[in-house]
Amino acid sequence: MLKTLRRTALRAANTSLAGSVLRTLDQARLGRAGDLAVLTYHRVDEPEARSRLYPGLISASPERFGQQLDLLTQIAQVVSMQEVLEACAGRAMLPARCVLITFDDACCDFARHAWPELKRRGLPATLFVPTAYPDRPDRHFWWDRLYAMLWHGGRDRLQCEAGRFDLTSDRQRKLAYRSLSDWIKAMPHDAALRLLDQMAAEQAAPLPPHNVLSWQTLRQLAQEGVTLAAHTQTHPLLTRVDLEEARREVSGSQADLQREIGQVLPVFAYPGGQHNAALVRMMREEGFELAFTVRRGINHIPALASGSRERRLTMNRINIGQQTSVQVLHAQLIALWCHGRTRGRV
Ligand SMILES: [Zn+2]
Known about the structure:
By secondary structure, the chain is of the alpha/beta class.
């Protein structure tokens, strides 16, 4: 039911009538000063360009990404992480309809496709880096390994602790991917990785290509103005490791960035957005000012600036996926700005 509603809403947002409604709403200049929308991108690429990587993390093709940036320059003000930190510290005010652009995982296509589009338009962006991956071609994200195993493993059946899976069609492989990724995310991180190793060996699965930027490229991007920020070292879901391990991942990631880049802001993104009250307290103890989840919504910065730091350690974001056409992004932002204004009145 929810899926059908979502599909209908997406279709409605792509109609020409919706387009003219959105343009009219733009003229109403909706939104409160200090309302910040944070966009989450992962990869910007064509799925067929690197067919051995999990395509579900492609947020947009390079062409659509450029169109989304053109929209943002018309209807919003794209701000930098430094500006958001200043506003959160109460030293500056953000205007209405602000957007912060973030990328998770520091994938190679950021330098190849996303940054050239951002740079051409003079737009700032923040890249969250899992710092154990640069310059380690032997390390691969589990979702890419799972994809390589199911699509390129050469076996038509998989049996493991999570169940028996038929891999004879694309549909069956998608079902298996969904079940196995849910299973992996629900397990302690180390145990999940060990089981993935075991399954991959049994399936004679090829390794996916390494897809994280090198430190040399990251340093170059930082010099050109990209904000680099911590995203743990090995990218575990922090709710699937114990608190001390989570602390090591967080502080180690920050220390890696300091060593390699020279300076780093007190900013973090939770892998998969996963967090809880104990993790938020730990983030505060480690000196972080801002941390980003994947919970959908707008952030009203004046309220966050005057509230407790914990609230700034669970910032909302809006995920951009392959279904986020330019018009869908436009509709999502207008809806959030309208909601923010309504909420401000009550
Ligand atoms: Zn991530």
